[in-house]
Specification:
The complex is a heterodimer. By secondary structure, chain A is of the alpha/beta class. Chain A is built from nine helices and five strands. Chain A has a five-stranded parallel β-sheet with strand order 2-3-1-4-5, with helices on both faces. Chain A is globular and about 55 Å long. Chain B is α/β, with parallel strands linked by helices. Chain B has one domain: 3-Layer(aba) Sandwich (Rossmann fold), CATH 3.40.50. Helix content of chain B is 49%, strand content 11%. The relative contact order of chain B is 0.18. Classes of the chains: A alpha/beta, B alpha/beta. At the A-B interface, helix 2, helix 3 and helix 5 of A face helix 3 and helix 5 of B.
Chain lengths: 248, 238
């Protein structure tokens, strides 16, 4: 698996991985804000977000129609759509692309669900390796508590209920997440994850993330060339701006 | 009429990694696949086979492409707009196939039905191979598929296919003409070139997957007669 740099793409891809509740989404969001403030060409993509495939995925999930095989394939379809239509063109155009979850999420989840590892990896072999993959590692209990505190109703597939690990969704979620963590740890070396201690304070983690990104990537090469030398004609509305960021 | 059930296929197998936790020796039914381009007489032959099989006391289940509960309508929509890139469309079709495999084909085979597939993974693979996709990648993806008991490929020259399609609907289908490939701006030319390319790929796949090539350039009855004969052997009724 070659990185985008090794494949001579002008852009770079940074991925974050980790269990639900590891705080990775917060960290990548803060990274995005920093890069934007620095005037870097940056694009953010989250897992499971292709508009086209979404309706099928949500139908499958709501009606509990998915098996391990179709769960895997429908997520691969979603990923391929984002990869071919968004990620690749942006990487060709010299963007820094931030991915909240990448193929490793599929490797971990699908194998936990019983799909053959070679099969899953083969499906995703059209995807290049991120130039940097950060794995946010919390103690299992910490991430479980974060999720279970804030959002007491667990969704069927999220809790791994399809695996019949336990009839109690909370217990099922615990076992499922534990197994996913094992899968992640097993592939950590193979895919050069930078493991970050996500039990630390948000600020401390972010400082490390920014330092790491700055070391790994020569950010000066990714500056946006300002099309207009003039300052904005209207004062910016910070509330609207924040909303747009969230929607992105 | 014989009442004994047909012999269970001895070496049932998946084409690759397969579906987890499936007990192959429980799949007592038969999976019969009919492949061929639009206009090769596929649907006609399948309808005739269903009649014939049911009259003889066999329960049948029809399956085909783009018929899954999970993604068929989304797939249809995506295709109309021609907005998906190749890998995505390919995986979308694979999802559609997998959904039917797990929810219809495998349960029906377990219940001893004869499953008649109006196209199978071979069409899906051939379409992608013609469009330059990696054969090894496709083989891995479709390694989930069960090996059929029989595959009949209805073979017809592109020149004859084009005549049959036009006489049926007075128009050629965008995808069946391979218009997305840019082979020719002329739809007639594109159809003929595309179907010739598909046929070449099918011939190649035939060597790996051992299809029975059926000459479809004959009367409907003659083709039916051959299919029945082959299926009687398969069912141990001859």
């Amino acid at each position: 698996m070659k990185t985008f740099a090794e494949l001579n793409f002008p852009g770079r891809l940074i991925a974050v991985e980790g269990l639900d509740g590891s705080g990775k989404s917060t960290q990548i969001y803060l990274l995005k804000r920093w890069l934007e403030a620095e005037g870097i060409k940056v694009y953010f993509s989250s897992w499971n977000s292709s508009e086209l495939v979404k309706s099928a995925t949500s139908k499958g999930k709501k009606r509990e129609l998915l098996t391990p095989t179709t769960f895997s394939l429908i997520h691969a379809t979603d990923f391929a759509d984002r990869y071919e239509r968004h990620l690749l063109p942006l990487l060709r155009a010299g963007y820094i692309v931030l991915c909240d979850r990448y193929v490793f999420t599929a490797f971990a989840r699908d194998v936990t669900r019983g799909c053959p590892p070679d099969w899953v990896r083969g499906i995703y072999n059209f995807a290049a390796k991120p130039d940097l993959t950060m794995f946010f590692k919390t103690d299992l209990e910490v991430s479980l508590n974060r999720i279970l505190e804030g959002r007491p109703k667990l969704k069927f597939f999220e809790a791994g209920m399809d695996l019949r690990l336990s009839s109690d969704p909370y217990e099922s979620f615990r076992i499922f997440q534990g197994r996913i963590l094992e899968q992640y740890m097993a592939m950590s070396g193979e895919f050069d994850f930078v493991v970050i201690d996500a039990n630390q304070h948000v600020e401390k983690q972010q400082a490390f993330v920014r330092k790491l990104v700055g070391e790994k990537i020569d950010l000066s090469k990714f500056k946006r060339r300002s099309p207009l030398p003039l300052p904005p004609a209207f004062p910016l509305d910070p509330a609207k701006e924040a909303e747009e960021d969230m929607a992105a | 009429m014989k009442t004994d059930s047909a012999p269970v296929k001895k070496n049932r197998k998946f084409l690759g990694h397969g579906i987890p936790h499936v007990k192959l020796d429980e799949l007592a039914g038969k999976l019969i696949v009919v492949e061929g381009a639009d206009g090769s007489g596929r649907s006609t032959q399948i309808a005739r086979l269903v009649d014939w099989l049911e009259t003889r006391g066999h329960a049948t289940v029809p399956v085909g492409l783009k018929r899954s509960t999970l993604v068929s309508s989304e797939l249809e929509k995506a295709q109309e707009g021609n907005i998906l890139s190749r890998t995505t469309l390919s995986l979308f079709y694979a999802t559609d196939f997998a959904d039917q495999l797990e929810n219809i084909i495998l349960p029906a085979l377990k219940a001893g039905f004869i499953v008649l597939a109006d196209r199978y993974i071979y069409t899906l693979m051939a379409r992608d191979m013609v469009r330059g996709m990696d054969e090894a990648w496709l083989k891995n993806v479709y390694g989930i598929a069960l090996e059929p008991d029989a595959v009949f490929y209805l073979s017809l020259e592109p020149e004859e296919l084009v005549q049959r399609n036009l006489s049926k609907s007075a128009a050629l289908d965008y995808w069946e003409s391979g218009m997305d490939l840019g082979l020719s701006r002329d739809m007639f030319d594109s159809f003929v070139k595309y179907q010739a390319a598909m046929q070449a790929v099918f011939r190649r796949l035939q060597k790996t997957y051992n299809f029975t090539i059926v000459d479809a350039n004959r009367s409907v009855e003659a083709v039916t007669k051959q299919l029945r004969k082959e299926i009687r052997v398969l069912l141990g009724e001859e």
